[in-house]
Amino acid sequence: MPMTYEAYLDEVTTLMTEMFEISDEDAISEVMRAQAADFFTLHDDHPEMRTQERAVQDARTIFGQRKKPGSTTAQKRTGKPRK
Predict the structure, then answer these.
(1) Backbone dihedral region of 22: left (phi > 0), alpha (psi from -120 to 50 degrees) or beta?
(2) How many Å from the N-terminal Cα to the C-terminal Cα in the chain?
(3) Up-side HSE of residue 6: CA atoms within 13 Å toward CB?
């Protein structure tokens, strides 16, 4: 049975803290950033996407997309520091 949308976000957050040993605050911040970027839009529309297996995949994806310390948007696009 699919989780509610809110429970799904909580699960992704919890998984991030457990899998990557980041703080609750950092995990919440990353999930909120992903939500603001419409990462979870389809999850809201399609309950069948809100499974435990998908939560693990999404936790990995969101963690992999984290902004690295000292990086900028320009660096991510071009691989070169901003001038």
Answers:
(1) beta
(2) 51
(3) 0
DSSP codes, 36-65:
HTTTTHHHHH-GGG--HHHHHHHHHHHHHT
Which pLDDT value is given to residue 82? 40
Say if residue 63's pLDDT is above 50: yes
For residue 48, is it left (φ>0), alpha (ψ between -120 and 50) or beta?
A: alpha
Are the beta carbons of 49 and 42 closer than 8 angstroms?
Answer: yes
Query: Which distant-in-sequence residues (6+ apart) come within 8 Å of 48 by Cβ?
Result: 2
By the 8 A CB rule, do 51 and 12 touch?
no
- Higher pLDDT: 80 or 45? It is 45
